[in-house]
Amino acid sequence: AAAAVSLNVSSNLVYWFARNRAQDRSVLVGNLLAYLLAGATLTALALVVSYVNGYWVEQFRYGAPVAIAFCAVWIVAQPFDHLGIAAGSPRLQAKMFFLQSWVRIGLIGGAAWVGGLGAVVWALLGFALVRAVVWVVIARGLPGVAPFGLDSALAMTQARYTLAFGVGATLFAVRAYADGWIAAWRFGAWGAAAVAVAATVVPLCGLIRHAVVGATLSKLAYAASRADLVQATALTRQANLTTALFVCPLVGLFIAIAPP
Fold this sequence. Notes:
Elements: H1 2-6, H2 13-19, H3 25-52, H4 58-61, H5 64-76, H6 83-86, H7 90-114, H8 117-140, H9 152-199, H10 202-225, H11 229-257
C-alpha cells in the first residue's frame, strides 16, 4: 500500500528542496502532506470495503481495524525516511533512524514478548504514529517550512515530475517478489530456491545501500541541479562501487555455503 499509493513521493523532497528557494519549502511539504493524507484516506476506505465484502482471511479479520489504521498512518509517515537527506543533513537523518530503531525494538519487541499477534499489531500502529509525528515536528523546525502551505500550481508541477519516479519506485518495490514468481514459473523449485538463497542477503544489502544513498543523495541532487554532470557521475560511480564492495562478496558467500 505504501509503495503503490504514495508513489514514493516523499523521496522526491530531495529533488524539490535542491531546486526551489528555502521559502518555498513550506508549500512543498504542505502539498506532500495533503497528498499523503488523501492517499491514506483512500487506502483505508478500500481496505474497509474489502473487509466488509469478506476478502480478508479469517486469521486477520479480528485485527482488521487496527491493521487498516496502521496502513493509513504508515503512508502518512513515509517522509520520515527522507526528510533529513532532503534538508541536506545526513547527520539529522542518521539521528532519526537511530531513534526509529530504538522505538521499534521497544514497542514491537516488547509487544511480542508479553502479548500475541494482536499486541504486535497495536505496537506497529504505535510505531507508525511515532514516525508520522516525529517527521512533522522536525519538518516544522526546518528553515522556511513552518507553517505548512498549499499551492495548486506547484502541486501540479510536483505531480508531473513525481509520477515517473513514483511508478518506477512502485515497480522496484514489487520486483522483490517478482524475481521469485518468475523463477518458480520458468524453472520450478530449483530456480525458486536459488533465488531465495541469493535473496537472503537482501535485507543486509538494503541497509548498505540505504546508508550509501543517505550519504550521497543530497550532494548528488545539488550537483544535478547545477548541471554538474561530472560531479554527479563521480558520486554515482563512487556510491555504486562502495555498495558492490560489500554486496557482491555476500551474495557469492551465501550461494557457496547453501546446501544442495
